[in-house]
Design goal:
Helix 6 (87-95) packs parallel to helix 7 (106-158). The chain has helices spanning 15-23, 29-34, 37-46, 54-62, 70-84, 87-95, 106-158, 164-207. The longest helix is centred in the middle third of the chain and has 53 residues, at 106-158. It starts with 14 loop residues before the first helix and ends in a 6-residue tail after the last helix. It folds into 2 domains: 1-84, no CATH class; 116-207. It is mostly helical and 213 residues long. The chain is 73% helix and 0% strand.
């Protein structure tokens, strides 16, 4: 799958190259023979893939007695990596929660990694805010469900067809729900306080960013 973080992608000029990128495990002998390995290498490089990806193509083509052109592949990948390994791209990768496995050339690695870490921190802070928001939403939904259940139980308690054993169980259920409702009512303000702090930290961090989100 192609990365959303690439600045540009070289259009694959042959059907064989497309087959390599999308389904290398089912390549035909003709596809293995006609694939533009430089283009494939560029695609892998511009997407930040590790160099061992060539092993997949080698395995797919070995069934047909064909060996990918490693020199062409590596040349294309090196070119693609120089497109991938730019600071702005590193920031985008990090800010979207992507991983970085140290594929950049030595002269580009530090600036890319620094920008990646900056984006990664933004991702962490945003994720924390989102997680707390989700927890508050879940608790409010649970509270609403408890209130609906209590109304239902109240109707069952006054229903003349309800047996004594059923009433006893309903009373126990009511007690448990009331306890849980109390826990939620106490927890939600705590979460809202945590969310306010997390949002402030996120806003403060955003103010320091060099790159746009």
């Amino acid at each position: 799958m192609r990365s959303r973080y690439s600045r540009s992608l070289l259009v694959v000029g042959t059907l064989a190259a497309s087959a390599v990128l999308t389904g290398c495990n089912s390549m035909s002998a003709q596809e293995c023979l006609s694939t533009d390995w430089r283009t494939v290498g560029y695609e892998d490089g511009v997407n930040g893939y590790a160099g061992d990806r060539i092993g997949r193509y080698r395995n797919a083509c070995s069934e047909h007695g064909v060996t990918p052109n490693l020199e062409q592949y590596q040349s294309g990948r090196d070119q693609g990596l120089r497109e991938f390994c730019k600071p702005a791209n590193g920031f985008r990768v990090g800010s979207h929660g992507g991983g970085y496995n140290g594929v950049c050339p030595a002269d580009l690695d530090q600036s890319f990694a620094d920008a990646y870490q900056s984006g990664r921190q933004l991702y962490v802070l945003r994720s924390r805010v989102g997680s707390t928001q989700d927890e508050i939403y879940a608790m409010r939904s649970e509270m609403e469900q408890i209130e609906r259940n209590l109304v239902t139980i109240g109707a069952q308690l006054v229903d003349p067809t309800t047996t004594n054993e059923q009433r006893a169980q309903l009373v126990i259920d009511t007690k448990h729900m009331a306890e849980r409702k109390g826990e939620i009512k106490a927890r939600i303000p705590q979460l809202e306080g945590e969310l306010a702090l997390q949002q402030r930290e996120l806003d403060d961090y955003r103010a320091t960013l060099t790159f746009a989100e």
